[in-house]
Amino acid sequence: MNYFIQILPIILGLIVLLSVIWIIFPAPSYYVWLYSVAVSEWSLWFGGLALFGIFSALVGYIFYKNGAILLASIIIGGIGFLISLYPFFTSISAARENGVSLSFGQYFGAIFGKKSDADPFQTRVYERDFKVDIYLPKDKNLRQGASLIVVHGGSWSGGERNDFPQWNQWFADNGYTVFDIDYTLVQPNYDLAVGDVKSAVKWVKNHAAEFEISPDKIVLLGRSAGGHLALISAYSANNEEKVCAVISIYAPTNLIWAYDNPANPYVIDGAQTLSSFLGGSPHESEELRKRYLSASPNENINAQTPPTLLFHGGKDQLVRLENMYFVAEKLNASNVTNQTVYIPYGQHGFDYNSNGWGSQITKSVMLKFLAENTQIK
After folding, report:
1. Is residue 109 situated within a structural domain?
2. Which string of b and e fits 108-130 if b means at least 16 CB within 10 Å?
3. pTM above 0.90, yes or no
């Protein structure tokens, strides 16, 4: 028992180190990647555990005088602690660039703070059997007629509406009506899924009076595959499907390049994912190559493209960071209003913790972008 007490600080240090190491190194498997997303978003809690291990080692040394265990605990725990600080310190520059003040109170308050009761949402059918979850602003004084249509991620074949309910509630709390939608997941669905998103836009416009929103103040927002669908839907829309702005979070944009340049093959087979979505490889035929091009947001930009806000993380292991800049370059060339936000530590899914460093930056930038493009002051 005494021996276990002595080595406990080393065990704690190893747990922390083997957890936080995936913040900076590519994950060797899908499940390790999933764990790494959580660790990177709650890294300071792991850092606290590392400090507790070091403190325990110091206390243990007083009783057992085992210098080797103390030294090992300090080295292992110290390395783990330093790595746990990486998300915070790399977020400082990103926050400064975007005029955002990071809040420790918000970061830790998510655990210790009082949780507000979530407002109930209603579910309706918008197209065939597809459903939409609708969040209405609780405070009617905040309603100013603007809304968001949210498109979920999931490699175009999975995921589900309302997979980020904490964000939907946050948007509603800030005065925006939220429509979180289903779309076709049976593949290849490159055309059907885009059509579903456009149908949702038309449905929302047709029901604008019912929900006390303006049909001219609708914003598309999507994450990952949903970000791609939001972009391509906004960029290829006709007058009935037109939105006033679009927000994309870690979305693939140049699909041929993404097919040839996958992110982390140990986490996801990017080429196969795209092949399933589009019905084959872009190198199989000219028809498929043109299909990839027509489904790539960066190939569908012109002077009438709506204002665009793009987010991406520097440690994304599903969709490479270059995708954000491919779109931004084309938007700039067409003189389209746009903004890119780079989250240095950010993994794919960095916004799952709605109080994390990346989400704090994202929230602040989003509110400003939405206010400017829906004329909410």
Report:
1. no
2. eebeeeeeeeeeebeeeebbeeb
3. yes
